[in-house]
Design goal:
The chain is about 35% helix and about 15% strand. The protein is built from 13 helices and twelve strands. The protein has helices at about 35-50, 90-100, 105-130, 130-135, 155-170, 195-205, 220-235, 250-255, 270-280, 290-295, 295-310, 320-330, 385-390, and strands at about 5-10, 15-20, 25-30, 140-150, 175-180, 210-215, 240, 260-265, 285, 340-345, 370, 390-395. Strands 4, 5, 6, 7, 8, 9, 10 and 11 form an eight-stranded mixed β-sheet that branches. A four-stranded antiparallel β-sheet has the order 3-2-1-12. Helix 1 (about 35-50) packs across helix 3 (about 105-130) and helix 5 packs parallel to helix 6.
């Protein structure tokens, strides 16, 4: 298969990608949210030239050993870790992008690569008549989610009340709150908030729910450990990004000091950094973001490294663009999936740009679970009205129209 065109539809917040192959088949993906219009430009200028006209697999189906591309690439079943050689063609092509653009080693290049990778998986799903989760060796159906609060400018009482409503109305049995201030250098959102919100949420939600906390790179080592002890005292199970994420040695010391699972990695987009995070046991639970990292193929590589080390994977997906959908399909397929999917609970007051993205919104929560449909590919249609308002650009390969 040869890609003949790559099109983007973007605004500042979201950028969708459509790829078209030489036989006319198409797939839809997405670059990472936020400054997506810049990422779309990077895609056309620095990624498309190395993808257009290249031979890519006609299909990648890790669930079917009769497909040549899948013969040694199955994602694996519980307790099984197998090779990812079936993804070699795509993986090699993405590696080529990073090599040819070696003077631009940062996040934007990976965010752009993720748009093409995810569109290819949709194309392969439509060709096979299967959802992506099935191509990855999993199956559609329900997936447990945790309700992820993004707010710090909310009182502990108000946070408890709205999470209680979600528990009662949607059946969530796991919740994540924010502690500290984002990259706060040990500051709190306001003095004493963290010390108040940690026990307040346990009291509001009761002893039977799982509670998680995200510090978003707030703390020094000593302060991170002190907050971690408070979380442990209240039975929290997940302590995310306690130290500045780039200070891996600091995070490792916090991990070693605490019993609670220390988690992280959402910002990290280099495979070599991930090797260090996993080999050095910097965190207990790894949290790649599929679009920050550069797509499904690269996320599967990180998931496999984590599986070899016996670490679970709970990816970061903090908004209701397509990134949560991608994560649903991957989580339902990998053998070392974490206990739940991150599911943002913030609506149009917090993320107004989420409105009107899809014709058939894939995000319905019932009994604390989302459901992956059995529709081909990602199983979602981007809304034509949104596309009509977006900034359009295309790159055409040799022989394209």
């Amino acid at each position: 298969m040869i890609l003949q065109s790559i099109e983007t539809f973007a605004d500042r917040f979201v950028g969708f990608v459509r790829v078209t192959a030489d036989d006319g088949s198409q797939g839809w993906g997405q670059v990472s949210p936020y400054n997506a219009d810049i990422t779309a430009e990077v895609l056309h200028r620095q990624v498309a030239p190395w993808i257009l006209g290249a031979e890519l697999p006609d299909t990648v189906d890790l669930s079917d050993p009769s497909v040549p591309e899948a013969s040694s690439g199955r994602a694996g079943t519980a307790g099984e870790v197998t090779d990812l050689a079936g993804l070699a063609d795509l993986d090699d092509r993405l590696d080529l992008v990073t090599e040819r653009e070696h003077k631009f080693p940062g996040s934007y290049l990976r965010r752009a690569m993720g748009g093409i990778d995810t569109a290819l998986w949709d194309l392969w799903g439509w060709r096979a008549g299967k959802p992506v989760v099935s191509l990855l060796g999993g199956s559609p159906g329900p997936l447990r989610a945790y309700a992820s609060s993004m707010k710090r400018d909310i009182t502990p009482r108000a946070e408890g009340e709205r999470l209680q409503r979600l528990r009662d109305d949607k059946g969530f049995d796991a919740f994540k709150i924010r502690v500290g201030a984002e990259v706060g250098r040990d500051r709190d959102e306001w003095p004493g908030r963290t010390e108040t919100v940690i026990p307040a949420l346990r009291m509001a939600l009761g002893p039977d729910v799982a509670l998680l906390a995200d510090a978003n790179s707030c703390y020094s080592i000593d302060r991170a450990i002190a907050v971690g002890r408070r979380l442990e005292d209240q039975g929290y199970c997940h302590y995310e990004e306690p130290c500045p994420y780039w200070k891996l040695d600091d995070t490792k010391r916090v991990t070693e000091a605490l019993e609670i699972d220390v988690t992280g990695g959402e910002q990290d987009c280099h495979i070599n950094t991930w090797r260090r995070i996993i080999d050095d046991h910097v965190v207990d639970v790894v949290q790649p973001d599929i679009l920050y990292l550069g797509g499904v193929a690269r996320t599967l590589k990180v998931a496999r490294m984590a599986a070899v080390a016996g670490r679970p994977v709970t990816p970061h997906c903090a908004n209701l663009s397509m990134v949560t959908l991608f994560t649903m399909h991957v989580l339902k397929a990998i053998p070392n999936a974490g206990a739940y999917l991150e599911f943002s609970i913030e609506g149009p007051d917090y993320y107004p740009w989420q409105n009107g993205l899809f014709v058939n919104c894939p995000y319905t929560v019932d009994n604390g679970c989302v459901t992956i449909s059995d529709r081909p590919g990602w199983g979602v249609e981007v809304h034509p009205e949104w596309l009509a308002k977006a900034r359009y650009k295309s790159s055409i390969g040799e022989g394209g129209k």
